Amino acid sequence: MKEFFPKIKKVKYEGLKSKNPLSFKHYNPQEKIFGKTMEKHFRFAVCYWHTFKGLGGDQFGLSTISRSYNQGSGPMEIAEMTMRAAFEFFSKLGVKFWCFHDRDIAPEGNSLAETNKNLDKIVALAKKLQSETGIKQLWGTANLFSNKRFMAGAATNPSPDVFAYAAAQVKKAMEVTKELGGAGYVFWGGREGYDMLLNTDMKRELEHLAKFMHLAVDYKKKIGLKGPLYIEPKPKEPTKHQYDFDAGNCFAFLQKYDLVKYFKLNIEANHATLAGHSFQHELQYCIDNNIFGSVDANRGDLLLGWDTDQFPMDIYEAALAMYIILNGGGFTTGGLNFDAHVRRQSIAPEDLFYAHIGAMDTFARGLKIAAKMIKDGKIDKMLKARYAGWDKGIGRKIEKGKVDFNQLEKYALKNGEPKLQSGRQELLENLLNEYI
Ligand code: XUL
Ligand code: CO
């Protein structure tokens, strides 16, 4: 069998003393933290689109990267070679999950029927490679944004013909996800949004989006597709205003259209920051509202401000994210998918390995730090102490609904000026730095 990464051997955990850049220093898959292996904590996934189809093109120039599996006699041969290269990569890296869009893995044909045939052929190969390697699909999704037919959206397109085309595509992508035993199915809005309100009936478009989601729920039930449906919020890019703006916005949509019980959210770090939130805020919001599902791990660049999709290498951020995820009970069907691509100048195949190894080690450090924070309990104790007033007296009465405005006025008149307490931000920041 042809090797596509011949210079790379299986990446192993070698610990901190190792000088081998192609080894894990912190990610030890079988090491247990709070009784659960690191492998199970993270459920790491590699994304197909960036890692195997991203070739460094940007708005100012074409590809900089050429891959051995990307040279072939036609798009189907390239698709097959890329799939083999992908499974070699997953196996060598030691990641147990992968994620893809329908159009990442197989090319479009001259008609939808031909496109579906192409997809079936590549899915059969993927199924075979999955069973040979034990690697599983974390989630599947449909690309409803690259082709020009979707320039004005898919489910929110002004044309019902495009709505129907998108439905046909999602139907097939759900079938394929079921065929591969996928643990979930993602809807990222793509071009579901608008560039100007003068040509957009926002109310009608959102009603169509809800209709589309209900049809997807019905079809999921019909075919017995397992795992949750996920919505992945993003505030802008490609459209000026994306309908799934952030976690709060998605939750409002799901509640309004009676969809909450079928959906969880897939939170992407760089999307959170584009929405003016921190990654941690979006995670905490989901956990608090029981809609936490999965994570697209990456990072943006403060100085750039668009979706740079860089590999997450910030230990501080990873520690804070893992603190929230651990406290929230961790992943169930979801996992941590690297929705990230190497920079345009990182043209060597081994750069793909360095990127994933670094990010996995970063999250392993984040997990260990978060576990220390939880075990020590100081931060949690300070948080509880800050709200202690609610556990007794007037606080308890308010929470239990036992007082009205009249009684509260009486209390305030009698009690006088409320006592102030310090928020202790700097102390908490110092404590966090100690754990790191
Ligand atoms: C786009 C993005 C997508 C989704 C899947 O910013 O994150 O790749 O993760 O469609
Ligand atoms: Co994403």
Helix content: 40-55%
Return residue spans where pLDDT drops below 50 for at least 5 consecutive residues.
none
H and E string: EEHEHHEHHEHEEHEEHEHHEHEHHHHH
Shape: globular
Let me know the number of strands.
12
Instruction: Tell me the distance between the termini.
Output: 44 Å
Please state roughly what percent of the residues sit in beta strands, choosing from under 5%, 5-15%, 15-25%, 25-35%, 35-45% or over 45%.
Answer: 5-15%
Query: What's the mean pLDDT score?
Result: 98
Summed up, the helix count is 16
Largest sheet: 8 strands, parallel
Secondary structure class reads: alpha/beta
Strand order of the largest sheet: 5-4-3-12-11-10-8-6
Cofactors and ligands present?
A: D-xylulose, cobalt (II) ion
Rg, rounded, reads 24 Å
Folded structure, characterized:
- The chain is of the alpha/beta class and 436 residues long.
- Helices cover 47% and strands 11% of the residues.
- It contains 16 helices and 12 strands.
- The strands form 3 sheets. Strands 5-4-3-12-11-10-8-6 form an 8-stranded parallel beta sheet. Strands 1-2 form a two-stranded antiparallel sheet.
- Helix 5 (112-133) runs parallel beside helix 6 and helix 6 (160-179) packs parallel to helix 7.
- The protein is globular.
- The two termini are 44 Å apart.
- The mean pLDDT is 98.
- The structure holds D-xylulose and cobalt (II) ion.
- D-xylulose (XUL) is lined by residues 49, 101, 141, 186, 188, 232, 234, 268, 296, 307, 339.
